[in-house]
Every structure is written in C-alpha cells, then in structure tokens.
Amino acid sequence: MALCRSDAIRSAPLDAAVRPGRVAVSAAHRHRFSDKKKDIFSPNYEMECDEAGTQVDDEENNRDSGWITKAGGALGAQTPASKPTAEAPTPGCHGFGDIKKNIIRASKMPPLPRYETKIVVRPRGGLCISKVGPSVVAEAIWEAAGLDPGERNSDTMCPNPLQNIMVVSTPSQENVKHYVNVEAITVAGQDPEVSAYVAAPHATCKGVIRGIPLSDGPEAIDRKTVNARNPLALGAKRIKSTGVVIVLFDGYEVPNYVSYGGTLIKCTLYRKQIDVCYACGRLGHRSDFCPTPDASVCRACREAIQPNEHDVCEPICSLCGGKHLTASRDCKHRYQTPYVVRRRRGLRARAIQARSPSFDVDASIELNGCHHQDQPGPSATGGRSRSRGRSKTRGGSKSRSTSRARQKSRSRSGARSRSRTRSGSRARSGSSSRPDQGRADAAGTCPDTSPRPGYKYASGLQPSTAVHANEDQGRKKPNLT
C-alpha cells in the first residue's frame, strides 16, 4: 500500500546519526513538516521567460559576452503565466507532473521582435526585480549603459520575475556593446553587480561535444569549431572548467559529428536543465541570482532550517516525487524537452492532420462525381439528348440498343420541355437490354465524358454519357421497327 509523504515521514524511524541519503534538519522543523504541507511556490512564484525557439542558458559565474555571432535572436511566446498551486503535491498523486509543466509554462515571455538581438541581464547581491520594480531596474540599466532616450528609442526591456532577470531587445549592434559592458547598476542607493550576456539568436539550436582539452582557451575552441568543415557552426564555448563545450548551430538540426581541429567528435542535442535554487529552495532560478539569498531552506523538504539544530529528514524530489534531492542527477525529469524536438513533433502532427482531411475530401469528390455521372437526366432545361449504346448482360449475352430522346415538358413556372423517344433493340439470346442508367453500373467503371476528336454532333444536341460509351455504334443508323 502506497503511503503519502506525511505518512511516510511519521512512520520512518528517527536516529541520532544521519543515515545515507538523508539530510540533517532541526527537530522542530521535522515536526512542522509532518503536521502540515508546504507549498513550494511562493506568492511571487510566477515568471515569463524565453521564447519557444531560443532558451536562456545557464551562463557561468565568470564574465561572458554570450553568443555574439550574428544580428538577431528571439525571445517570446504567447503562453500565459501559470498560477501557483494551492498545495504541495504528495508522492503518488498527480501534482508532480503538473509542477514541471507549470515551471515551463511560467517560463515564457511576451513576444519580442524575432530578429533583434536579446541581452540577458542578471542582477546579483539579492536584488529582487519584483520588489524594486521592473521600470526602476530598467532605468538603472539604461543609465549604467550610458544610453540617451534617443539612442534607446527602439529598445525594449522585459522583466522575468521567476528567473529574476531582465531581457533587453535591441536592433542596434552599437547598443549591444553598451549593454554587454554593464557590470553594476545603481538602485535605491546601492550598487549591485550584474551579469550581462547575449542570448542565442533566433532559428538556432545547440549541440554538446565532450572530451575537449582544458588547455584550449576560448579563442582556440572557436577557431577549431567555427570553420569551413562545420558550415552550420556559429559559435562555441566551454561549460565552466569542464571538457564539455556547447556549439551553436544555424537552423534546427544538430549534426551527429563535429570536426574539432580536424578530429570528428560525436555531437549530441543540448538539453536545458530546470534551475533549482539551493538557497531558497525554489525552482526556476539559480542560487547565485536568488532574490532572497539569506533564506536557509532545506533542499530535501523545502522547510526553513534553524542554525545549530539538525535532525534527519527523507528527501523527496519536487519534480517527480522520488526519494532523492530535487533536480539531482538521479531525477529523470530535471531536463526540459528541447525546442528542436517539440518543433519536429508539432510539424509531424500538423502534416498528418493536414494530409488526412484532404484525402477524404478527394475520395468523396471522386465517388460523388462517379455517382452523378451514373444518374440519368437532362443536362439543361429544354435540352435534347441522344444516346446509342451497347451493353452486356450478366449471363454473358450481348444486346444492342439505340435510343434517341427528345423531351419537352411544361411546368407550373412556365418551363417547357419536349421529349421524343425512339428505341430499337436486337438481342442474340432474346433477353432485353439494360436501361441507360444501368450501363455504367454494369461496366463497373465511370465512363469518360470527354468528346471524341473528329466526331461532330448535331447542332443543338448535347452529348450524354451513353453517347461516349457507345460511340462506335452511334455512327450507324439504327434499324427502327
């Protein structure tokens, strides 16, 4: 029988020593956690972040200008921000899957011009954009960049409360240099540091290569990657002090191999990891850009930790409900689905959906057209029809029939029609011929209604279906009895 989180914590034995896989917390903290459920979302836990195509990367602590490769870049998708959940989910419930969806859904931004350059500005030192005000932070950034109102007239500043960042969209490459060089801003008499870098341009994707020597610097990595052997590569940079390098490609396809200095290295699709803050315990931002860095929260159960008071609590992941730390390496839900994959799935689904209705419509048109051709009737009011045909009976006997019809009738509305029918038939077996309306059904196919070249009909007569089906016989004069 599956137990909920609170029941599992109450029934678990508590030891003075910390067991493997458990986190030390206070006794009072354990008691609070077992008695009530806490919401991992705070009232301000809403955000709008990047576009479906360009994702904001986890940049390094050292200063990096970002992806300065070409003019352009896009951030924005018209997805409404999600609302915080009322209760923290428990293991075995449906809430864990919704948490990840809420984080991704809340990480969308309003649509910005796609082909403008995007600069991400991350404030440090505990500066909270939501509390200070986005307009105040925007004015501070413009002042630190040294841009006059006339020079930044075409620029757009968009806040991201959940990630605690500001996104600048500008069409001017000169303004990009000013924004990237900003190191600190002045807000409310304080000078907090900021980290500014250029986001990846629009219509690009990222791949990962591993095993790159640590002795290769940024210039060497860029020279060995961005060359004629890799025509789609736009830039490359290392992740911290590891042998992993992220390569930016033009378009939405990541090659299987990348030539690094003449050596083919396997390249895999880059997957963005969901950010988790080790300071406040919330999802969506990192601890180095946390707006409340002084809050000490247990990473296992997201409760406040009292200093010098420790006890044992079993970790539970906020993303999947597993018995591990939130977004740890053991969590299978810590990665977001790359935009390249989501875009490919969407195109495939739209292609299937667009192909199925058209096939049904074409088939119905074909069937309806064949059905209407088989039905007898005058082509127009007051028109005359003449048909001569030959048909086969089911028993194999052949019959020849020639018919000439002229009809004229007078209706209540004043329409007049006249008909005259002459028919003659001769059958070898003595059986009667099939009516005109059944000739197409007996043949099993829809006759061709196009006029035969070289054959002229009498003036004023419009050929019917039976004429073309028995045209050779129609040239002979019928023997009328």
TrEMBL record:
Provide the protein name.
Answer: CCHC-type domain-containing protein
Q: Which residues cross the membrane?
A: none
Compositional bias segments (type: Basic residues): 385-425
Region described as Disordered: spans on this chain: 75-94, 368-481
Give the matching SUPFAM superfamilies: Retrovirus zinc finger-like domains (SSF57756)
Q: Does the keyword Heme apply?
A: no
Which domain of life does the protein's organism represent? Eukaryota
What GO annotations for molecular function exist for this entry?
A: nucleic acid binding; zinc ion binding
Species whose genome carries this gene: Rhipicephalus sanguineus
Q: Which UniProt keywords apply?
A: Metal-binding, Zinc, Zinc-finger
- Domain CCHC-type spans what residues? 277-291
